[in-house]
């Protein structure tokens, strides 16, 4: 642990970034295997089944996003306290964060389960898609508690700089999911096939297992965080602090989730072919952004720990290097995707020529500005890690509601582009938001975000009371 902290706070920045990012990238690649495995097997059921998952995902993501601000606050505080050498507060923050995540996930999961049919009716889902989407959505909401719990385990472990343990857990659970998906989707022997809903069942089982293992790791306390059962007693002052710190994060992710949902309304209005092409393109985008997502998470950990240690200039250099590397990598992947677009679509839907053609067209338009995504992800991660979640929230709202959706609506409904107008909204938005992020980063106001300073008001929330009262 001491050697790792010395690397993060004093060692070469490229080495520190890569030592964090590589295990995260591998874990994210494997974890994306959940969605890829689902898409691969569900694709064998036809375009309607793929459309069912595509329509369901933005809705479940929105509900998850509503409770994610508290999780983001916990991860930010954990990394900064780790950088400041406050192991007592690291443990306290981790326990309280897990408690809040469990409560919020149960509430939103139940709410989403009840509202699922009404949400699908609002989306105007086609009759041939409705049944599969409803089953998939409801099972997904049941499993939200496990998705939340394990996501928090990963985030907190990243906050203390431990990225290998989550990788080992993901390896096992993804292999299990790969076996369970065809079993639950198509059935075998006494196990009946559940169709699209079977994919959600497989994910639920494996995420539940991952959550149990994660909690056990925390309770054993050998990897940077030590939890004890008594630490889960509610600390109202910390909860209040985390609420106000994390509220912009919840609004940010909810804005993104709601934007995806509203975009699904727009996509659905063009029929099953467009929905299927949008779903495949979204899966491809998710895959190609895995490396830069890992880099942005590494940036977040290093920025948070260096700010906690008072090394603000080093934190800025971390963000700049991460953004540059991510831009170069995604630009290269964009070139490859443009050349290989039809083959990428065939991986998901091998036998539908119309979906292959439309999906390839979507990918070739969308990939034109992928480099901007890399810049945006790393800079916004630095904002969050510094505690300036309000900036990240504003950028998300501008991206979704002032640029992408208005542009997609106007181009698709009021020009000859039709569905292609939706596709063109992606590169324009990525380019614009990356420029906005760079300008805001250059202002330097995000540097005033050291949450561990006792003599500083933190994001206008509760001040030093937690420390003064000796909650260590």
Verbal overview:
The protein is mainly α and 472 residues long. It has one domain. The protein contains 18 helices and two strands. The chain has helices at residues 2-10, 13-43, 47-66, 68-83, 87-123, 127-142, 144-159, 164-186, 196-220, 236-268, 272-288, 290-308, 312-348, 353-366, 370-385, 389-413, 419-443, 465-468; strands at residues 187-188, 191-192. Helix 3 (47-66) runs antiparallel to helix 10 (236-268). The longest helix is centred in the first third of the chain and has 37 residues, at 87-123. The protein is globular and about 55 Å long. Residues 454-472 have low confidence and may be disordered. The chain crosses the membrane at residues 12-30, 50-72, 93-115, 135-153, 165-189, 195-219, 257-278, 284-303, 324-349, 361-383, 390-410, 422-442. GO terms for molecular function: antiporter activity; xenobiotic transmembrane transporter activity. One of its GO terms (cellular component) is plasma membrane. It comes from Noviherbaspirillum pedocola.
Quick structural overview:
This protein is mainly α.
* Rg calc: 22 Å
Tally of distinct domains:
1
Tally of DSSP β-strands: 2
Model regions low in confidence, pLDDT < 50 over at least 5 residues = 454-472
Helix content: over 70%
Structural class: mainly alpha
What is the tally of helical segments?
A: 18
**Alpha-carbon distance between the two ends:** 20 Å
Mind summarizing the main beta sheet?
A: 2 strands, antiparallel
Q: What fraction strand? A: under 5%
As an assembly, this protein is single chain
Broad shape: globular
Integer average pLDDT: 84
Strand order, biggest sheet?
1-2
Order of helices and strands: HHHHHHHHEEHHHHHHHHHH
Protein name: MATE family efflux transporter
Subcellular location: Cell inner membrane
GO molecular function, one term: antiporter activity
Keywords: Cell membrane, Membrane, Transmembrane, Transmembrane helix, Transport
């Amino acid at each position: 642990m001491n050697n790792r902290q010395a690397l993060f706070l004093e060692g070469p920045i490229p080495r520190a970034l890569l030592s964090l990012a590589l295990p995260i990238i591998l874990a994210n690649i494997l974890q994306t295997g959940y969605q890829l495995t689902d898409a691969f097997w569900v694709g064998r059921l036809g375009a309607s089944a793929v459309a069912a998952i595509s329509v369901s995902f933005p809705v479940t993501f929105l509900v998850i996003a509503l409770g994610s601000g508290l999780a983001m606050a916990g991860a930010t505080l954990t990394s900064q306290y780790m950088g400041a050498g406050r192991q007592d507060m690291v443990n306290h923050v981790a326990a309280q964060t897990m408690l809040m995540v469990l409560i919020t996930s149960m509430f939103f999961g139940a709410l989403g389960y009840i509202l699922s049919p009404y949400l699908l009716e609002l989306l105007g889902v086609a009759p041939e898609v409705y049944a599969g989407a409803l089953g998939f959505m409801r099972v997904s909401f049941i499993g939200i508690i496990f998705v939340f719990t394990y996501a928090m385990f990963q985030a907190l472990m990243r906050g203390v700089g431990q990225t290998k343990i989550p990788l080992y857990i993901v390896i096992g659970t993804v292999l299990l999911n790969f076996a369970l998906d065809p079993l639950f989707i198509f059935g075998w022997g006494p196990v009946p096939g559940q169709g699209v809903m079977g994919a959600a069942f497989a994910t639920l089982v494996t995420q539940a297992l991952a959550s149990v293992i994660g909690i056990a790791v925390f309770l054993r306390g050998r990897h940077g965080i030590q939890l004890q059962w008594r630490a889960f007693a509610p600390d109202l002052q910390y909860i209040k602090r985390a609420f106000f710190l994390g509220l912009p994060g919840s609004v940010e992710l909810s804005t993104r989730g709601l934007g995806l949902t509203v975009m699904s309304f727009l996509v659905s209005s063009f029929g099953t072919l467009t929905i299927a092409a949008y779903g495949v393109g979204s899966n491809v985008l998710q895959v190609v952004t895995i490396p830069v997502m890992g880099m942005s998470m590494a940036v977040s950990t290093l920025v948070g720990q260096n700010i906690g240690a008072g090394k603000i200039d080093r934190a800025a250099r971390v963000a700049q290097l991460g953004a540059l590397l991510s831009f170069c990598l995604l630009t290269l992947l964009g070139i490859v995707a443009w050349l290989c677009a039809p083959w990428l679509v065939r991986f998901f839907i091998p036998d539908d020529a119309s979906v292959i053609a439309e999906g390839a067209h979507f990918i070739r338009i969308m990939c034109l500005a992928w480099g901007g995504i890399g810049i945006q992800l790393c800079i916004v991660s630095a904002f969050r890690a510094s505690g300036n979640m309000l900036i990240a929230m504003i950028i998300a709202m501008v991206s979704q509601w002032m640029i992408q959706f208005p542009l997609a609506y106007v181009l698709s409904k009021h020009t000859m582009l039709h569905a292609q107008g939706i596709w063109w909204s992606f590169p324009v938005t990525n380019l614009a938001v990356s420029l906005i992020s760079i300008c805001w980063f250059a202002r330097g106001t995000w540097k005033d975000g050291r949450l561990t300073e006792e003599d500083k008001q933190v994001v206008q929330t509760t001040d030093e009371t937690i420390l003064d009262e000796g909650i260590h």
